[in-house]
Structure formats: structure tokens, C-alpha cells
């Protein structure tokens, strides 16, 4: 995908943004379809600062594409190949803007189909899961269903790497302590998202997330997809599951054409960064 390269001051005095969230998984969104924007790691980290900036789990940039093209940044300034909840939020914004009920959105993950699911819900097809070690990627060849890590987690790629632990009680895990060493486990050369999940009913999971480059988050769309795929592969559930996250509920359906994710979104407010602030962090 083309990276954004024109100067930030092409916005004259201010840079507009939108604040959105999907189940508390929150995003700052920049619309660069008409105005080019430079996003550097320093700028992404400054915007992510919840005291001196705005705060986000991911920063998303909209560019022109078939319907639109999306680029994602984590709170630590690194890029993310996929962000399911941000994709759903932006899809809802674009559907409201255009009146369309289906969109094709270009991401590093590929072209993703998004649809209006009715009742204010939005669905996105996150594509087929990556199940081979080199696709995820892992550091060396191995079976991905049960990794040689204490707890035998499952590795899955959803455009970004995931490591899913199935536990008796997801609530009992100290994720702030558990997440960082597993995010940086040597088996994951690009680091990984870490999930802990427990079965709470037929095709019903409770899941909590430590997100690569972010930390604790209330929800994660790609993590939910990866967890649903891992649970189905291990015979714990069928291919359509309800996942309860700290921020709310997602429905994940692993179909023949990919992993579909459905849930609520929110466009919270619009604002703009001042030139003075942008210059101070450039």
C-alpha cells in the first residue's frame, strides 16, 4: 500500500481527525482522501498519548482506493497489518457517507469486504486465517495448533500474528504481567497479540487481550477472529462463536470465504490538531 508522504502542513493550520471505537477498542482516524498526511512514528506516539494527545489503540488513515484504502498504526508508532474493529468503524462511516451497504476496503491484509449487518451492526470479512508457521510468522518450522510454550497456545495469523491461550478462567489471569513476555516471545519474530480465552457455554467464549504495540485493550477484532479460529481448530467450538470481551460482544463466523466479524461501532466526536501542537511533535 502507498505510504503517506506529503507534508502535514498541507492542512494549512489544522489537521482534522475523527475519534471512533468498536467495543471500547478506540481509534483516531485521519481522512487523507483529499489532503495528504505524513504519519511518522513520533507523531503516532504523540497522538496516542492519553494525557498530552488524544489517545488510541490504533491510528487509522483513510486514502482513496476501490472504496477506500486503510493504513493502521499502533500506539507505540509501529504499523499494524490489520485492525478489524477500526475497519468496521471506518466502513460504517463510509457507508453512512455514501449510502452504500457494501464496501471493498484495501488494507495490507488485502481487500476486505464490509457490509451493513442491520440493527446498527457492521460486518467485515477479515479473510482466511494464516495457519502455517511461515505465514504467521513464527521463527522456525513447527505445528501451530499447540506451540512449545507453557500452556500450549495456538498460533494464528490474521494479517498480524496471534498467540491464543485457552484457560479455565480468563478473568483470573493477570494479563498485565502475562502479556508482555509472550508478546515478545522469541518464537514470534514480529512480536504477537496475546489472548487468554475460556469456554463459558456452547460456542461462547470469554476473551481478554494484550495487544502488540498497545498493551491491555477492551477489545480486538483480529484477536477475536484468531481466537475463534483457534477454538474451532482445537474442537472447543464450532466455526460460529460469540465472544465476550471487556468492552462488549462480537460474533465471529469462520466461513468458506473467510472469517466474518460482526458488532457495534461508535463515531464519538470530530476535532482537529492545531498547527502549533503538530509542529511541537514533528
Please report the first level of CATH classification, the CATH class of the largest domain: Alpha Beta
Number of helices: 5
Structural class: alpha+beta
When the domains are counted, the total is: 2
Relative helix content: 10-25%
Cα shape = globular
CATH level-4 homologous superfamily of the largest domain:
Diaminopimelate Epimerase, Chain A, domain 1
Number of strands: 17
Q: So, CATH architecture of the largest domain?
A: Roll
Strand content: 35-45%
What does the radius of gyration come to? 18 Å
What name does the CATH topology of the largest domain carry?
Diaminopimelate Epimerase, Chain A, domain 1
Q: What ranges have pLDDT less than 50 throughout 5 or more consecutive residues? A: 1-11
Largest sheet: 17 strands, mixed
Order of helices and strands: EEHEEEHEEEEEHEEEHEEEEH
Describe the model.
The protein is globular. The protein has a 17-stranded mixed sheet that branches. The chain has five helices and 17 strands. Helices cover 18% and strands 39% of the residues. The chain is α+β, with helices and mostly antiparallel strands and 282 residues long. Residues 1-11 have low confidence and may be disordered. The chain has two domains: 8-126 and 265-281, Diaminopimelate Epimerase, Chain A, domain 1 (Roll); 154-256, Diaminopimelate Epimerase, Chain A, domain 1, CATH 3.10.310. The protein has helices at residues 41-48, 84-98, 175-183, 221-233, 275-281, and strands spanning 14-22, 25-31, 58-63, 68-74, 79-80, 102-107, 110-118, 121-125, 154-157, 161-166, 193-201, 204-211, 215-217, 240-245, 248-255, 258-263, 266-274. Strand 2, helix 1 and strand 3 form a beta-alpha-beta unit.
